[in-house]
Automatic annotation (TrEMBL):
Transposase IS204/IS1001/IS1096/IS1165 zinc-finger domain residues: 35-79
Transposase IS204/IS1001/IS1096/IS1165 DDE domain boundaries: 158-258
Matching InterPro entries: Transpos_ISL3 (IPR047951), Transposase_DDE (IPR002560), Transposase_Znf (IPR029261)
Domain of life of the native organism: Bacteria
Protein name: Transposase
Amino acid sequence: MSRLRSLDLPRSLVVRRVVALDNRVEIEVGLRKRSAVCPDCQCPTRRIHSFYQRKLADLPWQGRPATLIVSVPRFFCQTMLCPRRTFVTPLEGITVRHGRQTTRLADLHYYIAHTLGGSAGARMTVRLCCPISADTLVRRLLSRVQNTTKGTALTRVVGVDDWAWRRGHHYGTIVVDLEKNDVIDLLPDRDADTLARWLQVHPGIEIIARDRAGTYADGCRRGAPSALQVTDRWHLLKNLSDAFVSILDRFTTTVRTLTRQMNVSTVVSKISETIRAHPEEAQAVVRSASGERRDILFKEALALKAAGHSIQAIATTIGVERKTVRRWFQRGHAPPWKRTVPSRSILVAEISQKGCTSG
Ligand SMILES: [Zn+2]
């Protein structure tokens, strides 16, 4: 009996039996409370009509999926004038009406979907012994998000970014309340119109942290023209990283030569000296940098191919995607790098004027 008491179940349940099968565990439980109040006449009763069973998927137990088999009483209403003869009470704190899983398992699935999304989340639930399909995981996340949004206070700061309904195939937009750190909504696509409409029906948003996509800029501008658009920490770091790599690309030959001869710290100091020695060339050299780097990599790839290496081995060696290497060989050269002149973004303009960042 002490083992049964040690099961971590809601206080309203009494464990009657635990059946450990090969591939799952069944826990038979009853309700501790043996009285109820009629939902119509509000009169209490202890007279039980019958019992019926509800099977609820629960948190896994000892590495096996667990099922709660709850014996639920149906009560008689003893008030003569009440139109209701029998009734059952909801399993509050255990599951929702017509639910087929416990609330705590639903919570676990929600957190997994929130963190990993559909496909990866579904794979994780298999490892955790509480399997659920990717579609169901996403549907439940969406359902809870919509329920949470109803009747909540106005949101002031939101984050807007891509979200994969199905990675590589179908993308939507995720809207997060950055003050509560909670998902507010999942939009079906990444269109500016969709985001603009969403913002129009959610007034009061003052700050929008978004990624650099032009469609999001357009949607924010039309949907919430008075909101301040900022970039988040991740995108700031990505911008910085891209800029740093494009500068390093100018010195590809130097870097590759030095790395064969010196340790990393010496290489970094040498590169810094070289960059400082040619500040006036900065704009011009960055433009040709990527193409120059690709030419060097292409020559290395040709040499490896001549030595009999496979495309996969070549890609791994020079640090380029396999399909990129194949494309280079098909074309007979590495494609030249064409830098388009960037338009001045509203994001950059506002950040530079107000010095505001999120995150
Ligand atoms: Zn009644």
